[in-house]
Amino acid sequence: MLFFSFFKTLVDQELKNDVKITGTLRSIDQYLNIKLDNVQTDVAKYPHFVAVRSVFIRGSTIRYIHLNPNSVDTNLLQDASRREAMASSGDKIVGR
Amino acid sequence: MSFFGFDPSGQPGHRKDGKLDLDSFQNFDDEMHSEEEDALNDETFGAAADNLSKDFDFSSGSGSKLSSKGGLKPAPAPIQPNAISYAQAANTTGNDSLRPMESLWNDQQQNSEVQSAQSQETEPEKKVFSLEEIEAKMRAQPPPSQLPQLPPPQQQFSPGMNPFMLPPQAQQQLLASAIASGRYPDMQTAARAVTQMLMAPPPMSQQGMMPQGMMPPPFMGYPVQPMGMGLPQQGLPQQGLPQQGLPQQGQIPQPIQQAPIQPENGETQRAQQHQSPLQTQEEQAAPAPEAPSVAQVQVSPPEERLDLNSFPTIEAASQTKSADSSSASSPRQPQQSHQLQQHQQGFHQQGYRGGNNYRGHHFYNQQQRQYQQRQQVENLNPEERSKYLARQEKVGKITRASGFMNPRDKDFITRIQLSQIVTDDPYNEDFYCQVYKVLNSSVEENSMNYLAKKYLEQSGHRLGGRSKRADIALQRMQQQVSKAVSVAKERGERSGVLSKEGALGKVSFGTGKRPRQLLVVNAENKENDENDLLPKEYKMYRSSRSVQLSSIESVYSEVLKLESRERENEGIDDSELWKSLQVSDGATAEDTVDPFVALLSFDKMMKVFTRVFPLLSAEHKIATIERIFSDLQKVDVVLKGSYKNYPQQNYEIPKDVRSRIELFQITVLKTLVLYLSDAPFALVLHLLDSIVKKNNVLFLCTTKIGLSLITVLISRLELIKQEFSKNLSAQDLSQWQQTYDSLFQCLEGRLVTVIPPYFSKDEQKSVKNGDSEGDDSYIWQFLASLSLAGLLDHQRIIVDEVRDEIFGAMAAAKKLKTEGNVERAEKYLNNLNLFLNVMGLKANEDDITELSDE
Question: Ranges of Low complexity compositional bias (chain B) (predicted)?
Answer without folding.
Answer: 58-73, 225-263, 279-299, 316-350
